[in-house]
Amino acid sequence: MIEFPHLKIYSGGRAPNPRRVQIFLAEKNITVPTEHLDINKLEQRGEEFKKINPLGRLPVLMLEDGTAISESVAICRYFEEMVPDPALFGRRPEGKAIVEMWQRRVELGFMMPVATAFRHLHPGAAHLESPQIAEWGKVNQPRAREFMEFLDEELAGRDFIAGGEFSIADITTFISYQFLKPARIGYPEDLPNLQRWFQDMSQRPSTLL
């Protein structure tokens, strides 16, 4: 276990972006002191926390010198530099570019539609997204489905989203997939390659936490 006792992470429990960092750190075998804020109580939007992140979003990594790093991928990149192995952002120039390509594809093509559908359709998200626009949520549901069909075709020839090794692209896809139900999007039981990939990911120790 690699410990960073002088750092601190402000997290939001099992919300997608805090969870993305949690899985990443588990894959790296890293532990960091963590303070959990209650997203449902909007603690991340309180005046005290906004002194740390003016956008009022989680997660945030606080460095020893008081520097605050927000955005989950930026936090993951910090720890990738600190602990290079296992490499979760790819190896060598080509591999890193491919992981970056897939990470962006998944964020824009899958994670964003799922998140939008959840925030605009789930009653429990009304306090996070005001106003909720149901039609916009419904527009994004088939977009998520279309991207899952694309992923299913891609995964016919490999085990992981970005190639032959597990990467942050798998983490982003996994946390998005886990949010299909609250986003009112059907599980893709007819997409065997994506189903196989998800079952494999579900057995990794990092995703069981």
Please explain how this structure is put together.
- By secondary structure, the protein is an alpha/beta fold.
- It has 2 domains: 2-82, Glutaredoxin, CATH 3.40.30; 92-207, Up-down Bundle (Glutathione S-transferase Yfyf (Class Pi), Chain A, domain 2), CATH 1.20.1050.
- Helices cover 48% and strands 8% of the residues.
- It has 7 helices and 6 strands, in the order ββαββαββααααα.
- The strands form 2 sheets. It has a 4-stranded mixed beta sheet, with helices on one face.
- β5 (60-62) and β6 (68-70) form a beta hairpin.
- α4 (92-121) runs parallel beside α6 (168-177) and α5 packs across α7 (192-202).
- The two termini are 15 Å apart.
Q: What is shown here, in short?
A:
The chain is of the alpha/beta class and 209 residues long. Helix content is 48%, strand content 8%. It has a four-stranded mixed sheet with strand order 4-2-5-6, with helices on one face. The protein has a two-stranded parallel ribbon with strand order 1-3.
Task: Provide the fold topology.
Elements: E1 2-3, E2 8-11, H1 16-28, E3 30-31, E4 34-36, H2 47-50, E5 60-62, E6 68-70, H3 72-82, H4 92-121, H5 134-154, H6 168-177, H7 192-202
Parallel strand pairs: 1-3, 2-4
Antiparallel strand pairs: 2-5, 5-6
Helix pairs in contact: 1-3, 1-6, 4-5, 4-6, 5-7
